[in-house]
Amino acid sequence: MPVLISVIIPAFKAEATLARAVESVARQTMQGQKFRDQVEVIIAADDGRDYGFAQSLAPKVKVLAAPGKGTGPGAARNRGIRASTGRYLAFLDADDHYGDGYFDALLMLARRHGAAFAPTRVMASDGTSLITLGADQSWLTPQDFGRWPGSFHPLLRRELTPGFDHGAGQDVFHVIEVLGQVGGRAPMAPSVYYALNLQGGSITAKASFGHHVDRRYQATIQRYHRRQTALTGMARLAVIHALHQRRRWNKGFLTAPMDENGFYGYLAKHKK
């Protein structure tokens, strides 16, 4: 049976969390039935470690050896895309997981619109829910990237992915370009969620990462001013405005007392 969905997972020092991620894929259903061999999991190792244990966690798991150590999550995702065979692509970080019903809800929408999303539920390192990005929304638009400064993860037809670049925030800019491919907005399935699990000592909690991200925002704003994007018209201008909003959120985080949950802890305290 042809593969319907390929789930791309970059793996870097992920031994402690990868099983939870893969098992959340294996639990997914479509119309109440297990996907069985219609879903493949592509683990793109990026650290030279052996993730062969994951092959016993789901029916179809392929582990790609790293060509080098630390090539970056964007490069790892691109390797996973090239090795995948599914008609649809989904993305999952090795320390995150899908909530139950994720594929059931998103695949129906992606078949109709080309791409679909779920809210991102941010979980603190102690397992409690900090904030849900995009809660109670029916659509994801460029404006939402300023309202919700965080990551969203698409399920989309494979020909719609522009691939990933190699800079900070590459998953965010991938999604923005995906929206450009589907007319500037994509449906959200508010009944399910993508769980973003914060880990103690995460690089994203450090001020140095915040400064790095800010430089990336500045460079990307200039790229969008030069129209180097699939987005056009008001959608392109909305992204520029959203990136300026993200810079303000980032500046607030960098000048505030350090939160144990990093940027998302700061966001949870100040988002109204």
Describe the protein's architecture and organization:
The chain has eight helices and 14 strands. Helices cover 36% and strands 18% of the residues. The radius of gyration is 18 Å and the shape is globular. The chain folds into two domains: 1-95, Spore Coat Polysaccharide Biosynthesis Protein SpsA, Chain A (Alpha-Beta Complex); 99-272, no CATH class. The model has no long low-confidence stretch (mean pLDDT 93). It has helices spanning 18-26, 73-83, 102-113, 144-147, 170-181, 207-225, 233-255, 262-270; strands at 5-11, 29-30, 33-34, 39-45, 61-64, 88-91, 97-98, 115-116, 120-123, 129-133, 139-140, 155-157, 186-187, 194-197. It has 272 residues and is an alpha/beta fold. The longest helix has 23 residues, at 233-255. The protein starts with a strand and ends with a helix. Helix 6 (207-225) runs antiparallel to helix 7 (233-255). The strands form four sheets. The chain has a six-stranded mixed β-sheet.
Q: Which residues sit in consecutive blocks of at least 5 with pLDDT less than 50?
A: none
Largest sheet: 6 strands, mixed
Separate helix tally: 8
> Using DSSP, what is the number of strands?
14
**What count of domains describes the coordinates?**
2
Report how far apart the termini are: 47 Å
Helix content: 25-40%
Instruction: Note the run of SSEs as H and E.
Output: EHEEEEHEEHEEEEHEHEEHHH
Which structural class matches the secondary elements? alpha/beta
Sequence of strands across the biggest β-sheet: 5-4-1-6-12-8
